[in-house]
Design a protein that fits this description.
alpha/beta, 5-stranded mixed β-sheet, 12 strands, 14% helix, Metallo-depent_PP-like, Phosphodiesterase_MJ0936/Vps29, metal-binding
Length: 188
Amino acid sequence: MPTPAPQPEPALRVALLADTHGSLDGRIEQLVGDCDLAVHAGDIGNAAVLARLQPRQGRVLAVYGNNDSPRQWPSADRELLQHLPEWRAYPLPGGTLVVIHGHQTPARDRHGWLRRRFPEARVLVYGHSHRLVVDTDVSPWVLNPGAAGRTRTHGGPSCLILEARASTWTVEVHRFTHHSHAPRARIA
């Protein structure tokens, strides 16, 4: 009897996004729907942004950013804001993901500071700068998905997709151009 071919190791697909500031690009929203988990690294803008994130497993992790303050959120959303942590750690196949907004330290040593603060992580996800960054040369990896809304997108709205397996992790970069035909979800 022939030996069955080994099955490929399943991957957990994790959508990484940040800096929506109340506006979520529709193309990124669609990508999240093809993922198992969504992680938002802060400066969310309102509860409706998080409600529109619909990954397959229904799990959305989020932290607050420096612009996620009660005076900047709609009054009806402020209860949710009170429950957002400064940072979160989440176990994935093959390691731990840590998400933090990143405004807690100056930009010049942000990656070093993150690596020193969370050395046990396999990947560190942050936002704040609105700049897409994939730093996988040193462990733990440091990723910034850029801005997933309309504010300071530096070349267009972007996000990252992390595929986590017990043995390997990969990162996909998704950047979209600004154009008037783009399906965008403006969340008031």
